[in-house]
Each structure stands twice: as structure tokens, then as C-alpha cells.
Design a protein that fits this description.
This protein has 330 residues and is of the alpha+beta class. The chain has four domains: 88 residues, eRF1 domain 2 (Nucleotidyltransferase, domain 5); 77 residues, Nucleic acid-binding proteins (OB fold (Dihydrolipoamide Acetyltransferase, E2P)), CATH 2.40.50.140; 64 residues, no CATH class; 49 residues, no CATH class. Strands 4, 5, 6, 7, 8 and 13 form a six-stranded antiparallel sheet that branches. The longest helix has 22 residues. The chain is globular. One of its GO terms (cellular component) is cytoplasm. Keywords: Cell inner membrane, Cell membrane, Endonuclease, Hydrolase, Magnesium, Membrane, Metal-binding, Nuclease, RNA-binding. GO terms for molecular function: endonuclease activity; hydrolase activity; metal ion binding; RNA binding; RNA nuclease activity. Its cofactor is Mg(2+).
Length: 330
């Protein structure tokens, strides 16, 4: 099986990342200039208004619209000292107008609604998510095999990590050595320490941390060791990618390669044609059938048609083969 990650960043107005398996587009992510993801960004913000009826606060973190901070998203470390061990106080006892706090975006602005914020910070890495000022130490629920969970918990416990630096090990951490996990943890701690240093140097509202660009996010979240190569068509993004691999997983750095052909990278691997097909509501199946996808207000309807399929012996066999091919496409 051939598996590649293609990073198309040669056009400043649009970045695209595709994962291709045996020539077939498996994953596609697109980021437009001016519409970069803000979810995950961390800011030094100032409280503008405390709403006791909502048990929430509106916070200025530098965007056009004020962010929304619910009381359930306020870290106990912000509570007044007298209340830290006596349960959660009311929001008016925690926050006041003009108070400066660290916030992170958990849901981006939508329509007339401002971004949803939290003060429970988290920093995603390659193998784990760091949660500063937290005692949570665990393994992702996506790792369902108990044996793997036990091994990861045992490995992490042997690292003697700080008590107030929580973490959740991601699926990418399965089978990794202690040194690799520790390297990722140390990288995230340095990142957090840099955020705290910048916090002391600026006045709210100010951005302290920006979530990685599309290329680095895709590598962090989707790169797997069964990939043959990571091809990049832009010199700066190529160098950033090499640096990220050197920092987080140097043993795989040789897989990062620069696409130097004159033919655009997505055209070279027939990705443009497959992207065009994504906008059509009808998809042809290998044996002559098709599926038709129609979104409605309540649901997305998928109609499976056997079409000219007649090679199977009997209607049930034809239906089974059609449904298997349709399931693969969906």
C-alpha cells in the first residue's frame, strides 16, 4: 500500500493538505487566507461584563466580538483564596470588570455569537495533550484495548512528570518509547512556559499563542509511520515541516521531501480531479452502480443504486456487492 501526505502551500491565498492512499484521496483539509483557525489560540484577556443571571462573563480578547466565558469554564485557580476549598462560588465572586485572565478559544465565532472561551488551557502535541495546572493524567478514550492503555499508563508513570502538569496520551502514542513521549512532553512544557513569559510582558487584550498552521496541524494529527513520504511544494513550509519533525519525531525526518516538479503537486497526483468530484452529488461505483447524496434540513439522504450491475449471481449478491462498494465511498 502506498500512502502519502501532500502539502500544497504555494498559493498564499489557500493552503491544502491531502492524504492519498494508493492514488485515492483519503483526507482533504483546506485553509483560506484570512479564515485561519482560531480554535486553540490562547489570549491574555480582560473581563468586560459579568452576567450573574447567566453565570457567565463577556471577555475582550482582541476580536471584534466579545468572547463568552461560562462559570463551568473557569479554572479553580482563579477562585478567590477563601473559596478554593469550599466548592464553586458565584461568578460575581470570581470575576470583576477589568480583571485580566488567560483564555483559550474552544468554539470559534459564528454569526452574531462571539467565541466560546475556557480558562482550562490545553496544548496538543504529537503524542499527547498537555493540560497545565491540572492533575489529570490519562489515556485517550479512543484507545480501547486495555493492554495498550496499561502499557501507556505504566510508561508515563515511569517518567516522573510534574504533579501540576496534566496530560492525555493520544492514539499516536501507542507503541512509542519513553524517550519519544518525554520529548513531546518537554516540548509542550517549553511552549507553555513561553506563553507565561509573554503574559507578563503584554497588556490585555493580546494573543499569546497561535495554533499551528494547517500543514503542522495535519502532520501532528494525521501523520502515521506507514506513510511513504510527506511532499511539500513551498520552501518556507518545507523548512517549517523539517523543523517540526526534527523537534518532535526526528527518526522520521527523512520522509519529508520537497516537490520540485514544474507540474503542480495536486495535478501530479491527480488530486484536482478527485476534489472536483467531491462537489457532485452522484458518485459512480467500480462495478457500474452509483450513490446519490442529497443533504436536507433534517438529514443527509444517501441513495444506493445498483445500476447496470448484473454480473453477480442473484439479486442478493448484487445488492451486497453494491452496498460494500457504496460503504467504501461513503
Amino acid at each position: 500500500m502506498s500512502k502519502k501526505m501532500l502539502i500544497n502551500a504555494s498559493h498564499p491565498e489557500e493552503n491544502r493538505v491531502a492524504i492519498v492512499v494508493d492514488g485515492v484521496l483519503s483526507e482533504l483539509d483546506i485553509e483560506l487566507a484570512g479564515q485561519e483557525q482560531s480554535r486553540g489560540n490562547i489570549y491574555k484577556a480582560a473581563v468586560v461584563r459579568v452576567e450573574t443571571g447567566l453565570q457567565a462573563a463577556f471577555v475582550d480578547y482582541g476580536a471584534d466580538k466579545l468572547g463568552f466565558l461560562q462559570i463551568s469554564e473557569i479554572h479553580p485557580g482563579i477562585y478567590p483564596a477563601r473559596n478554593q476549598t469550599n466548592g464553586r462560588p458565584r461568578i460575581a465572586d470570581i470575576l470583576h470588570r477589568g480583571q485580566e485572565i488567560l483564555v483559550q478559544i474552544v468554539k470559534e465565532e459564528r454569526g452574531n455569537k462571539g467565541a466560546a472561551l475556557t480558562t482550562f488551557l490545553s496544548l496538543p502535541g504529537r503524542y499527547m495533550v498537555l493540560m497545565p495546572d491540572s492533575t489529570t493524567k490519562g489515556v485517550s478514550r479512543k484507545i480501547t484495548e486495555e493492554a495498550q492503555r496499561k502499557v501507556l499508563k505504566k510508561t508515563m508513570a515511569e517518567l516522573n512528570l510534574p504533579d501540576q502538569m496534566g496530560y492525555i496520551v493520544r492514539t499516536a502514542g501507542i507503541g512509542k518509547e519513553k524517550e519519544e513521549l518525554k520529548r513531546d512532553f518537554d516540548y509542550l512544557v517549553r511552549l507553555y512556559e513561553g506563553i507565561i513569559q509573554r503574559k507578563e510582558q503584554v497588556k490585555a487584550p493580546a494573543q499569546l499563542y497561535q495554533e499551528s498552521n494547517l500543514a503542522i496541524r495535519s502532520i501532528r494529527d494525521y501523520f502515521s509511520t506507514d506513510m511513504d513520504e510527506v511532499l511539500v511544494d513551498d520552501e518556507k513550509v518545507f523548512n517549517d515541516t523539517k523543523d517540526f519533525f526534527a523537534l518532535v519525531m526526528p527518526e522520521h525526518g527523512n520522509l519529508v521531501k520537497r516537490h520540485r516538479e514544474r507540474r503542480p503537486i495536486f495535478s501530479r497526483y491527480q488530486i484536482e480531479e478527485q476534489i472536483d468530484a467531491l462537489s457532485r452529488n452522484q458518485v459512480s461505483l467500480p462495478s457500474g452502480g452509483s450513490i446519490v447524496i442529497d443533504p436536507t434540513e433534517a438529514l443527509v439522504a444517501i441513495d444506493v443504486n445498483s445500476g447496470k450491475m448484473s454480473s453477480e449471481s442473484g439479486i442478493e449478491a448484487t445488492a451486497a456487492k453494491t452496498n460494500l462498494e457504496a460503504a467504501a465511498e461513503v
